[in-house]
Specification:
Enzyme class: oxidoreductase
Signal peptide: 1-27
Keywords: Apoplast, Copper, Glycoprotein, Lignin degradation, Metal-binding, Oxidoreductase, Repeat, Secreted, Signal
Number of strands: 36
Strand order of the largest sheet: 12-11-16-21-18-19
Oligomer: single chain
Strand content: 35-45%
Catalytic activity: 4 hydroquinone + O2 = 4 benzosemiquinone + 2 H2O
Protein name: Laccase
Helix content: under 10%
Distance between the termini: 33 Å
Structural class: mainly beta
Largest sheet: 6 strands, mixed
Radius of gyration: 23 Å
Length: 589
């Protein structure tokens, strides 16, 4: 982690980590203070204003044990509002602390503060936290580590664990980036990838290489790499030259150990990966390479960062030999991602995490693009003309995000009239060949499917409903994959495939024995993924693609889960520290 200097007036309290541990190793209360502020950082010969927590990029790691209670005091010293989301934390009966802007709370105002309090139970592994308003999560983010009770893993205990935060370096101000995307401008790109905030030696300023992240290892020791993709725009391939990696967990759940030479992470995903330092003592490069589809724009530049694995006792000159660099796939080759994700399985446990075999409600969600006419016109030229704004959709509905209130607050107070409806379609309005590549470029086939509309459409579920969703990535105006993230839940990934989902033959491929349990599923490019879960956590839960441009464009919705029959299965009232929305769309003092 890269620590950055800052004026003493910003803060003097680094993360409190006040562990009030009871006798006998019982659950603890882990407290942190997050001061969110601006600072300048220089890369690629330019000084850029960035947004950080406690002067750190990436932000501080929250390190807890299964069963602990987490309390985070957030002080907002930015000139605009923000929230902090605890990505992947189940938030059982604590939806009020989920931190989804305008979904579970209004943003913390400039100069304001907020307390997040929640319990972490039944999850072990790597999650993460990030800002959930505008594009600030590009730099306001960090790892969230949950350790098993007693320190016992179902794999060899590592000597050390190391967060590996893959991100992007943006020279453009992130608030301005958000404004441009809301206006329909999606032409901006980051300048580089980062590993733990470092651009790496493949980037340079006037011929001087940028600093690289360095992992120091001892031969024969095992290291647990806690890899998180915090990027706004890209999936990433990750390799370490000369080393085999073993994936043992993802999204806070154990996986069947899977050996590979490359890990693939979509935005929002977190992987637990064992690396044994078993190579001859020397230096070895690690590489994070962005993966983009070749269509519709093959000219997107490659984003890459290169770090270093440095063995104890190795010569600083690497014995005069070139430092080995892993061979990476072509940046436009998306198939390695598909095979990687499809090869992962959950660590089967007979007493928990059983797949619901009965399904109460089924959904078929198409994920694609469309357009709306500018200036509320009822008709306009399509085919990406200046008269339209390109939006993202689920079943041809582009989600209209609230801008001055919280969906959860209004739902709880039963003041929802005019705010949202509960009629998100469970299938697209018109069946078509969803993965026809002729739909990618503007043309007559695409034009007939392009018109859509903005609306705040949700779905409501009774408590303990078994839900199955088929996510279908389409080729409509684009060919992106879609990392779909559901707040407040883990779901079973039963299967995924390429092309159009076939409801007659593809269910035969479903894995009911040991499917992955995830909070984010990478729906393949022009492919599909099937997930299933039970609505056992009441509240208002955001579902969205984790590509930032897709969120802003409207590939999102929210699920309402009603209370169960008992107080233990119901959403409690907001906690004392919860702050209601004010008239300006920010939390009240």
């Amino acid at each position: 982690m890269e620590k950055l200097s800052m004026a003493a007036t910003i803060f003097c309290a680094v993360a409190l980590a006040a562990l009030a541990t009871a006798a006998g190793g019982e659950a603890a209360v882990v407290e942190h203070t997050f001061v969110v502020h601006e600072m300048n950082q220089t890369h690629l010969c330019n000084t850029t204003k960035i947004y950080v927590v406690n002067g750190q990029l990436p932000g501080p790691t929250i390190d807890v044990t299964d069963g602990d209670t987490v309390v985070v005091h957030v002080e907002n010293r930015l000139p605009h509002g923000l929230t902090i989301h605890w990505h992947g934390v189940r938030q059982i009966r604590s939806c009020w602390s989920d931190g989804a802007g305008f979904v579970t709370e209004c943003p913390i105002p400039p100069g304001g503060n907020h307390v997040y309090r929640f319990n972490v139970t039944g999850q072990v592994g790597t999650l993460w936290w990030h800002a959930h308003v505008t594009c600030l999560r590009a730099t306001v983010a960090g790892a969230f580590v949950i350790r098993p009770k007693g320190g016992r893993y179902p794999f060899p205990t590592p000597t050390k664990d190391v967060p590996i935060i893959i991100g992007e370096w943006w020279e453009l101000d992130l608030v301005e980036l958000d404004r441009r995307m809301h206006d329909g401008n999606f032409d901006d790109n980051p300048l580089s990838a980062t590993i733990n905030g470092k651009l790496g030696d493949l980037s340079n300023c006037s011929g001087k290489p940028e600093e690289s992240f360095v992992l120091d290892v001892v031969r024969g020791k095992t290291y647990l790499l806690r890899i998180v993709n915090t990027a706004l725009f890209s999936e990433y391939y990750f390799k370490v030259a000369g080393h085999t990696l073993t994936v043992v967990g993802a999204d806070g759940n154990y996986l069947t150990p899977y050996k590979t030479d490359m890990v693939t992470l979509a935005p929002g995903e977190a992987m637990d990966v064992l690396m044994v330092a078993d190579a001859p003592p020397a230096h070895y490069h690690m590489v994070a390479l962005a993966n983009q589809p070749p269509e519709p724009d093959p000219q997107i530049p490659g984003f890459v960062s290169r770090g270093l694995v440095r063995y104890a006792g190795s010569d600083n000159s690497n014995n005069g030999l070139p430092v080995p660099t892993p061979l990476m796939p072509d940046q436009h080759n998306t198939m390695p991602s598909y095979y990687f994700h499809n090869n992962l399985t959950g660590l089967a446990h007979p007493d928990r995490h059983r797949v619901p075999m009965h399904v109460d409600e089924r959904f078929f969600f198409t994920l694609g693009l469309g357009s709306i006419c500018r200036n509320n016109s009822t008709s306009c030229k399509r085919r990406r003309s200046p008269e339209t704004i390109v939006v993202a959709t689920m079943n041809n509905v582009s989600f209209r995000h609230p801008t001055n209130t919280s969906l959860l607050e209004r739902y709880y107070e039963r003041r929802t009239s005019g705010l949202y409806t509960e009629d998100l379609p469970d299938h697209p309005p018109h069946p078509y060949n969803y993965t026809d590549r002729n739909l990618i470029p503007p043309g007559p086939l695409e034009e007939a499917l392009e018109p859509t509309f903005k609306a705040t459409k949700l779905r409501r579920f009774r408590y303990n409903t078994s839900v199955e969703i088929i996510f279908q990535s389409t080729a409509l105006l684009q060919s992106d994959s879609n990392p779909m993230h559901l707040h407040g839940y883990d779901f079973f990934v039963l299967a995924m495939g390429l092309g159009n989902y076939n409801p007659k033959t593809d269910p035969k491929k479903f894995n009911y024995h040991n499917p992955q349990l995830r909070n984010t599923v990478q729906v393949p490019r022009t492919g599909w993924a099937a997930v299933r879960f039970v609505t056992d956590n009441p509240g208002m839960w955001y579902l969205h693609c984790h590509f930032e441009f897709h969120i802003i464009m409207g590939m999102a919705t929210a699920f309402i889960v009603e209370d169960g029959p008992t107080p233990e299965t119901s959403l409690p009232p907001p906690p004392p520290e919860f702050k209601k929305c004010g008239a300006n769309g920010l939390t009240q003092p």
